# Entry
Amino acid sequence: MSTDEAALALGHRFHQALTARDWDGIRALLHPDATWTLPGDNTVSGTAEGADAVVDRARLIASYGLDFALEHVLVSRENVALALHNTARREDAVLDEHLATVCTLRDGRIARIETYLSDVPGMNAFFV
# Structure
């Protein structure tokens, strides 16, 4: 399997594990020292450091009832990004954001995740 095929497959596995709330599946894709950085100023913002913290971040985000609609898995020569459309609704807030979750790979696993958002103020209002 070529590097880009492996990255594409890893991106699909990450999304599948996230939507299935398969926390062990996500952990298996991560390096022990993986990080995940999200913009904004809310309960899910900042940098989670270490595989356990990254899984906890995914679990917290999912606990808000998000639908993680996959639009595309994008590959570079060595890395992968997921283009997502995340939506969720609470009685007092609506989330409707487009994002790119960029995964830096090392030795076939995710070493770093950085998320880019279309609506940081909307994210801040939703994740209180």
Observations:
- DSSP finds four helices and six strands in the chain.
- The chain has a mean pLDDT of 96.
- The first strand starts at residue 30 and ends at 38.
